[in-house]
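Hello Y.,

Per our agreement to keep a running log of every chain we model this quarter, I'm adding this entry. I've kept the format consistent with earlier entries: sequence first, then predicted structure.
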Amino acid sequence: MAKVVVHVDDVDKVTMAQGNVHNLLAAMPTSEIVMVVNGPAVTTLTGDKWTAFLQANPMVEVDACQNALRSHQIATTDLVAGAKVVPAGVVRIVELETQGFSYLKP
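Predicted structure for the entry above:
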């Protein structure tokens, strides 16, 4: 089983990141995947693109950076269902890497 943290901080890379996760799960269905969304990409966590992705991939954890939400003035109540808020995206990535997760950034 692979353990992968996917870092998404660019709005233009969200679709690619979701595609990477889809491909990874198709090849390695027992993978543990956490997507950490921070920077400007956090603004996409209020839209349908993530709703459909999360519904199709309930085994994928999607973490939203509280710092990025605050800087982009997004309330946690505006996030898509299933997104989890973490205090700091960069800290979450480091924590996951120390737990043996491989880092992937599309």
